[in-house]
Amino acid sequence: MDWTAIKTEYVTTDTSYRKLSAKYGVSSTQIANHAKSEKWVEEKERFLAKSYTKTLEALSDGYKERAKRILGLSDKILDKIEKALDIVEVTDIHAIRNITVVLKDLKEIQLFKDDGDGPSEMHITVGGWDPSWGQ
């Protein structure tokens, strides 16, 4: 009997003694006895904890990169807004309102959070943007 294979499958998957028994043709009592004497449950808990940590680290790296990109884009938009403020007359209330709308949209972009459902796209439409302010 390949107890190493049975143990590895138990520790690294979400299977039960009963399923392993059927797959490997050994009684679930024998599997339970081996598991108890070799502390498979504790090993599975360590494996899951380590896997969980690695998954969180990978997700964290992805979110950091995405946050950098979003903040970089928002910085470019802020540069455009600063240029627009230099062009706009103080008395041009409509333009000032449009800039305010753009700033609110920018704040939403900076606060954007992924829903965690996998790859997604974010389409950004900046309301109130006047093409004369630059591309």
Please give a structural write-up.
There is one protein chain. The chain is mostly helical and about 140 residues long. It is built from 5 helices and no strands. α4 (about 40-85) packs antiparallel against α5.
What is the topological layout?
Elements lengths: L2 H10 L4 H8 L3 H11 L1 H48 L5 H18 L25
Helix pairs in contact: 1-4, 2-3, 4-5
The proportion of residues in beta strands is under 5%
Number of strands: 0
What would you call the shape? Answer: rod-shaped
Arithmetic mean pLDDT: 78
How far is the N terminus from the C terminus? Answer: 70 Å
pLDDT < 50 runs, ≥5 residues: 118-125
Structural class: mainly alpha
Percent of residues in helices: over 70%
Q: Give the count of helical stretches.
A: 5
Report the radius of gyration as a whole number of Å.
28 Å
Reported for the largest beta sheet, the result is: none
Write the H/E string, N to C.
Answer: HHHHH
